[in-house]
Amino acid sequence: MIAVKLSEEEASLLKKSLELLLSDVRMEICDTDSGDFRAGLKREKAVLEHVIEQLEAGK
User: Fold this and answer.
1) Best CA proximity match to 25, nearest among 39, 44, 53, 50
2) What is the pLDDT of residues 18-50, one digit of tens each?
3) Quick check: pTM over 0.85?
């Protein structure tokens, strides 16, 4: 496990950036026809959601 110490401002900006990326990943999941690519995007989505949850819990 890697621990990173962030200021409130840094954590807020990181969370906002991850939420934007998550939105893009969700749209890409809907738009892709490749099952393998979709599966990889779903794994990426789960990781992003988990990291966002961790940032929210750290408030």
Assistant:
1) 44
2) 999 999 999 999 999 999 999 999 999 999 999
3) yes
